[in-house]
Known about the structure:
Chain A contains 7 helices and 3 strands. Chain A is mainly alpha-helical and 191 residues long. The relative contact order of chain B is 0.18. Strand 3 (177-181) of chain A pairs antiparallel with strand 12 of chain B.
Amino acid sequence: MRRKTFIRRVGYGTGAAILLPSIGLVQGCTYQHKIRKTLSEADIPFLDEIGETLIPTTADSPGAKATKIGEYMLLMYQDCMEQEDRQILVTGLNTLDSKTALDFSKSFLDADPADKILLLKSIQEEAIAYNLSHEEKDEVPPHYFDILKGLTLNGYFTSEIGMTQARAYLPIPGQYVECMPYSISDKIWAL
Amino acid sequence: MNINNKAKEANTYDAIVIGSGISGGWAAKELCENGLKTLVLERGRMVKHIEDYPTAHKHLWELKHRGAIPHKIKEENPVVSRCYAFNEATEHFFVKDKEHPYEQKKPFDWIRGYQVGGKSLLWARWTQRWSDLDFEANAKEGIAIDWPIRYKDIAPWYSHVERFAGISGNRDGLSQIPDGEFLTPMKMNCLEKHVKQSLQELYRDRHLVISRTANITERHNNRGPCQYRSLCERGCPFGGYFSSNSSTLPAAEATGNFTIRPFSVVQSILYDEDLGKATGVRVIDTNTKEVFEYYAKIIFVNAATLNTTLLLLNSKSNRFPNGLGNDSGELGHNLMDHNYNCKVEGEYEGMEDQYYSGRRPTGTYLPRFRNFGKDKQSHFKRGYAYGCGGFRPVGIQKVTETSIGLDLKKDQTQLGPWTFGLSGMGECLPYHDNQVTLSKDKTDAWGMPQLEIDAEYKENEKVMAEDMIDTAMEMLDQMKFKNIVDKKEMRNIGLNIHEMGTARMGHDPKTSILNRHNQVWGAENVFVTDGACMTSSACQNPSLTYMALTARAANYAVSELKKMNL
């Protein structure tokens, strides 16, 4: 809550993203995190990197970045997400950005791959704890990490790569085979 | 005078059909095939089979939002946005709330499709027959009024429409859903076969069957077969399912007796008091707002339940000051939908090495067993069926808890445990005070009064829905399913898109709007054969019954015309 208020305050009267004064930044830091009021095209590389960390390239299929996941997330943000979720996402990305700066003195883009995973895993722990603590309530606003994860999974598995390489796609099945053998190494059907 | 006569002649047909959806298409086909020059009036635009299905071949990744509806459209159109079939690939076949407003006294989701073909492009295609369990229920229980027909009256017409439409299904020998003229049934998957057997062992009176469905499993009337894409609502380029566009309208057109006029909203039915019958209709061109009149010996009203009722209410004359055929005062009353507020799922342990291929555009069906046979319920009347399905979802872990990176990708590319879902489909009783009326001050863009809808589920529906949920959970538990969850399905009345009953059939003009042949009392050359005519709702999906009633009424109209009785 304090964070939101702070953003609102510094955001007044300005149109552009604002650079925070160096509160809490380690000395000698070369990266200053951004405070966004909205998502824009400038965030696509950041979103691509988050997506790729969540769904990486493997031997059998490219990862989320190859599906232009950042562009997809931005489009969903602009056209399809509800206002409340949009705000949670923007605030969350600012948090993620400042955490990266604090922990690694680098942007998320420039952080080591292992650090990216560590960082996102720690945020996932946060999200799990958040969900657990709200389990009994209906209509809890989502944690921003779950929004990012949801966008990545949706975007990836509805992309051509996700549907035809990570999963198997039959555009025109022609028949229904009601029982067929499956082993864990088999590809599963795309939607 | 001479010019007027010529103009009148040019606007005169043997028959007029109002609406081109699932029942209007049947009226057109039957009337045209019997040699009647027939004019079909459709308020929406033309949709030609195949050529006007712009998204039919699009892959998900070719849709700008991958199928999602933009937030702005949702916000402007909250009602239609709640419909399961409304998405980026189908939205052009749905009416936007904003463009066609109506008044809700209580929440009522009115889902509409204004185009040639109407909602027959969008329907769920499940086609269980009714039985005398349904036709006799009102009379036996003293609820509302008796149906003026029984199963034997409609059975040959079920066969007639099934043969042409192409209904895949199995002859299961169950009296509550009589067998029909079926093409090869679609198949049950491994879990569904297992559930069928388990239910039989546990309950004896609960028979899981493959839903009878208007998707064709073999080539039929120059269409199909179904390609198992399960993208039906986009319009099928293979003609894999029955719609007016793929089936009845082309058949009507082939006779040479068929004329269709899109963009034509019917303002009222013209009634001649001296003749004691209707002479034609007044039509507003939706583009130019010009008003025309068309004339015919018989008129079929198939505008879909609520618009049919709106039109009858708006057709006022000295003889019928409260709407055509409305001596009883029942016009607009007794609105029903079904109650689908039950969705339960459970996981099955086993058969992990089994899967399926193809996207079957139907499910399995557990026909009614409540208040049927030896089953007697004291807390509610009538019963329900379940629409069911076995499937394997993606992923073993809960997605929010799956670790990211390689683990997440792996989990999302493998199968979770077999899952079986049951959606309850409950009968709703006809209540006089579930009703529609015309707004006194609000009109639409064409000057037609807006409809005010005042309807709700009542005690019987709510108690029945509780039983649907409890019984579904109990069955899954008895069959040793795990992680059984009540998905808390909550839909407004209307959203099951089975609105019906507002111009009901009956024995007596004092209590009904239509007689046993769907003729309007006092205007016997007007026939209403869409959902408006229903006297009760049963729990089966209703479209097959609308089609059969339409074919029956159309053939009756032709024979009465020949006898000079109309």
